[in-house]
Amino acid sequence: MISKEIYSGDTHQWFMFGRDPSKPDKIIDTNQYMIRTHNNALLMDPGGIEIFSAMLASVVKQVPINQIGHIFASHQDPDIISSLGLWDTALSDAKLHAPWLWEGFVRHFGMEHIEYAPIVDQGGCLVLNGVEVRFVPAHYLHSSGNFHVYDPVAKILMSGDVGAALEGDDAPMEVEDFEEHIPKMKGFHQRWMPSNTAKNDWIRRVRELEIDMMCPQHGRVFTGDNVGKFLDWFERLDVGVAVQ
């Protein structure tokens, strides 16, 4: 599994984990993210049960296990949070920040020690050693209870399934040619995003943020002008196409 520092500042760093060639063949590749402060860490969409051992090995190279105090789950899907039961045994004192809507479902993955910290529909924030991150509503994109994470200092948006592309383990980590990348995203977004109304609400929210990097759960990271290009493309895209 590749581990890459994608932001480093005076108060905190961002890490991206993914492109795991050792995962089972039919398991979709996922990106996991982490924010590290001087003595605390937030794991975001930490992955499925199948990649737990690779994730744990990668994470502890960057932060002591006893400093991981927080986990974030954007929604309930197994590819992002079915490893919860294993993290529950590995972490001594942690909170899971996830949509209030999915608590009864997420607990099926196993939660004896981690505390569930429900996020209300309007969103919220978390402060790690003075570093504030925001939980941005992204409902119905594609889950009915869904959030993204925005860091106003690093100017990074962890965008969950928005911006996702389905590619091989050897794909680059960053979008280089946006037009060339569109075919890798189009079908996914048209089928998995069910509502143009929800899509446009999210775009309105996100255009108010200053974003240098947009980091989806699958595929490549968007940087610089490609963030705006994605928003323009997504705004034009008709979604929810399975029902006509």
Automatic annotation (TrEMBL):
UniProt domain Metallo-beta-lactamase: residue ranges: 29-218
Signal sequence annotation: none
Pfam families linked: ODP
CDD domains: flavodiiron_proteins_MBL-fold
This protein's name: Metallo-beta-lactamase superfamily protein
Organism name: Grimontia celer
